[in-house]
Structures are given as structure tokens and as C-alpha cells.
Amino acid sequence: MIEKLIYYLGFPFVRYALLVGVLIALCTSLLGVTLVLKRYSMIGDGLSHVAFGATAVASVFQIVSDTYITLPVTVICAVILIRSGKNTRLKGDAAIAMLSVGALAIGYLLLNVFSTSANLSGDVCSTLFGSTSILTLSRSDVALCMVLSVVVLAVFLLFYNKLFAITFDEDFSRATGVKAEQYNLLIAVITAVVIVIAMNLVGALLISALIIFPAISSMRLFKNFRAVVISSACIAVFCALVGILISILAGTPVGSTIVTAYIVLFAGIEIFGLITGGK
Amino acid sequence: MSLISCKDLELAYEGRCIASGLNFQVEEGDYLCIVGENGSGKSTLMKTLLGLKDYSRGIITFGGGLRPDAIGYLPQQTEVQRDFPASVNEVVLSGCLNRCGIRPYYNRQEKEAASRNMERLGIEALARRCYRELSGGQQQRVLLARALCAADRLLVLDEPVSGLDPHATADLYSLIESLNKEDNMTIIMVSHDIGAAVRYGTKILHVSSRPLFFGKTEAYLDSEVGKIYTAKAGVVS
Predict the structure, then answer these.
(1) Which of A159, A222, A257, B23 is the most exposed place for a label (fewest CB within 10 A)?
(2) Between chains, do A38 and B97 touch, taking CB under 8 Å as contact?
(3) Percent of chain A with pLDDT over 90
(4) Do B50 and A175 touch (CB under 8 A)?
(5) Residues of A with CB below 8 A from B89's CB?
(6) How far apart (Å, rounded) are the C-alpha atoms in residues A260 and A45?
(7) End residue of a domain, out of B150, B177, B202
(8) What are B186-235's pLDDT values in tens digits?
(9) CA distances from A186 to A162, A180, A226, B50, B81 (A)
């Protein structure tokens, strides 16, 4: 098995896949802690469907590099969602659900009516679940993904303390002069960017897993913010590596294999918690 | 010069005027209690003073070197905080954020300020504990320490004892009193507990659709509205 692995790692596209996968998992996990604690996890889910819709539109117009369509559309939707969900929690919830199924339905409809592709259901399936597309990444895809990941990481490191403050208590932060509105906007934009780059890895439907699982698993293990953030990052990198390697060796779809790795780890932590009698 | 003075202030909530003609001043060393029934606009007034809400008419002036973003605020607990993984130290330190500006991390002075304030409130032993696992009274002390980090002249407290048991309530009130008397901290407390308001406050602002009373506590107890409300609350003066 080791030999087989070394053989595969000899190919540049496999190394790209590993690198991109780990970077994406890292970004989504860092962001996930904030999103889960701010009760924004559903926004991440909604946005991934929007990204699917945008990809469908891009493919109808036969735009090769669909990121240039998907990214701006998703960013705009993220900003609208975070703005509207602030005051009216319940309406915001419904708005997200509407946007999310709406984008899904219209995306599929457009693809069906206008698509020129010979293998429509294969295309849809790979946009939704990621399939093997990560193994066919080009050099420019990898470069774009790396740049975006570095930006996300830098933002997270530079604004770590501010993000903690507005996540823990937005009113207090605003009262003491932190521009919470701007940071919420920043979170919205980063979420959109991360979702668009993550779609290459796991597909639209499974992105929420990358956002939610590492954060929730870490919160079972640790009781302070810094430890939760660090552990999320570690869990994400570990599961992404394991998931991608298994998918290469066993020929399984990348996205669902990574998510399965997350689920197994989460279940393990839960069982460990039950045995040791933790809360 | 007054720390805060409000002139003909009018407050609106979702476009509807809820209180108007508010005139009052907060002086250095005051312990001002804002009382009134639910929906009378006392929370809105507090949020307006903190700059969280806009007001529709009137003037608020900050004097005596008070920076509007250096007011220590003790908010009510939110739903998010109930399962938030944060250590006491992290929460208290986040009160220093308004001193950082664009600097991304806390410096030594800010860390010292945080531990000094934890010591002042007797929670230094809890520094590494998880915030959500503390008792209600301990959590309020943590948030109070954070408020002290943000400001050292004026504290604004929003229903600080709601949800606390009688013992923790008495503890917190005497802690606030000592901050006011010994550290010369100016206090603005929003409360529906009128008994505590007249016992601890040196000044009372009673808001309703129109301001019912502003002045010293003794005068409030003698006033028409003060007599009615303290009698309702069963306060023996």
C-alpha cells in the first residue's frame, strides 16, 4: 500500500490535490468556529447552494473559468444575507432557506434547458458532490486557491482578537468602539470566498460539513477559544489528508470521503466523551 | 463639567417615539439608577448613551474628558454566550480591545490591566476556567471585569442582577457600591428593581412615555411618582 501511495504521489496532480485540499480544509475550519458560534452555520449552507446556481449559470453561458461568475455572485448574496439576518432572526432563517432552494432549483433548471453537455447528470453530480474534479485541477486553479487561502489565513490571524470579541458579544464590542458592522461584512465576504474555493474540493452540498464538523468536534474537546480554533485547524488538516489519501487509494469520491473522515472523528470524540463522563 | 448631559432627548424605537423631553446630567461619582416599567424606554435610553442606537431629537454631550467609546458596559447575557467556549481570561482581555486600535494583538499593559481587574473583582483564581461553566454571579463578575478594562470612569449596567439568586444579588450590589464609593467610578444602572435603586442610587431617573422624575434619591422618595412606585414595590423608606 505504501508503494502504491508513493507511486501516486509521484504525479503532480495528486500533490496539487493534497495541497489544495489541506488549504481549503484549514480555511473552512477557522471560519467555521466563528460561523457556528455566531449561529451563522445555515448561512454557509445557503451560500453553497447559491454558488451552485452561479456555476450553473456560468456553464450555460459556456464560461470556462466559472470562478469569475461564482465568486462575485456569492459575495453579494453573503452580504445581503448577513445584513438582513441581523435584526429579524426568524425572517433571516426563512430568507436563507428560500435563497438556498431557489438557487438550487433554478441552477438545475437552467442546466437542463440550456445545457450542451452530453453527460448532464454527471456534471450536476460533480458540482454538488465534488466527485473527482480535485484530481484534474490545473496549475492556475491551484494558484488561485493558494492565494485566496493565504488571504483568508492572514485576515484570520490579524483580526483574531476582534473576531473573538464580536463573536462573543457584539453589543459590548460596538459600545466600546469596535466597528462590528464592518467585521460582520468581512466575515460574510470571507465566507463567500471560502465556499467558492471549497466547492472544487467537496462540491456544493458538502461544504457545510467542512465548516461545521471541525468546530463542533473541537468544542467537545476544549473550553477556551484559542484551543478550539487551533484544534479545529488540526482536525481539519488531519481529516482532509486522510480523506484525500483514502480516496486516491480506494478510488472513492474525494468530498464524501473527507466528510466521512470528519464524521468518524466526531463520533469517536462523542464516544470518548461518554466513556470519560464529560459533558 | 458633567460627564454626560442630555438635553430634550427624544428616543424612537422602530420609528415610533417612545420617550421624549429627557433632560438629565451625569456627574463624576454619581450612581444614577434609571428605573421604569418594561417598554418604558430605559433600555433604549441606555443603548443610545452607548452609541448603539440613534436618537431622533435632542443633544447628548460628553464632557470631562469622557470618550464615548470608553464607557464600560455590562450587557445582559445573550443566548450565544451560554455555550461559548471561552476562558475567563479571554473574555476579560477582550475588554481592552478599544485600546488596541489597529494593533492586532494585546500588549503587556493590556494584559496587566486585565489581571488587575480580575484581582479587583476577586476572580483571578478563575482566570483559566471556562466562562460557561461558572455560576451566574461569577459570570457577572467576569463581565464586570471586562467592562472595567474598557473604561475606568463610567460603567453602564443593564439589569446586572437579573437571574441571580438573592445571595449573589446582594454580593454584586455591594461590589458595585464599592466600585462607586472607593474607586470613584461613576455608575449608570438600568433596573426594574426599584428597591435596590433607591437603596444604592444617589440619583434616580424615572422614565415613562415622558420623564417622570430626575433628581436626588431623597427627593425621589418624597415625590408623588416615587411614593407610588416604591409603595408598589413594597420598599419601606
Answers:
(1) B23
(2) no
(3) 30
(4) yes
(5) 224
(6) 18
(7) B150
(8) 999 998 888 888 899 999 988 876 667 888 888 888 887 888 778 777 76
(9) 11, 10, 20, 24, 22
B82 reaches A (C-beta below 8 A): no
The half-sphere exposure of A225 on its side-chain side, counting CA atoms within 13 A, is 27
- Cα–Cα distance for residue pair B230/A190, rounded to 1 Å: 53
Band of pLDDT at residue A85, cut at 50, 70 and 90: low
The residue segments making up the domain with residue B194 are: 1-71+153-237
Question: In Å, how far from its chain's centre is CA A199?
Answer: 7
| Domain co-membership, B55 together with B159 | yes
Q: Are β-strands B154-158 and B186-190 bridged in parallel, bridged antiparallel, or unpaired?
A: parallel
Same domain, B160 and B219: yes
Q: Does residue A70 form part of some domain?
A: yes
Q: Is B15 on the interface with A (CB under 8 A)?
A: no
User: Are the Cβ atoms of B130 and A167 closer than 8 angstroms?
Assistant: no
Per the structure, how many domains does chain A have? Answer: 1
Radius of gyration (C-alpha) of chain A in whole angstroms: 19
- Among residues B123, B150, B177, the one where a domain terminates is B150
User: Which of A24, A61, A22 minimizes the C-alpha distance to A211?
Assistant: A24
B115 and B89 both lie in a single domain? yes
Q: Residue A205's domain spans which residues? A: 2-273
Q: To the nearest whole angstrom, how far is the Cα of A167 from the nearest Cα of chain B? A: 8
- Does residue A103 sit within a domain? yes
pLDDT 10s digits, A44-82: 888 899 988 888 888 887 776 677 788 888 999 888 877
- Same-domain status, B89 and B51: no
Is the minimum CB–CB distance between B95 and chain A shorter than 8 Å?
Answer: yes
| Interchain contact B203–A (C-beta under 8 A) | no
Whether the pLDDT of residue A268 is over 70: the answer is yes
| Inter-chain touch B146–A172, beta carbons under 8 Å | yes
Is the CB of B102 inside 8 Å of chain A's CB atoms?
Answer: no
Q: What is the CATH number of the domain that holds A126?
A: 1.10.3470.10
State whether B104 and A157 contact (CB < 8 Å): yes
Residue A212 lies in a domain: yes
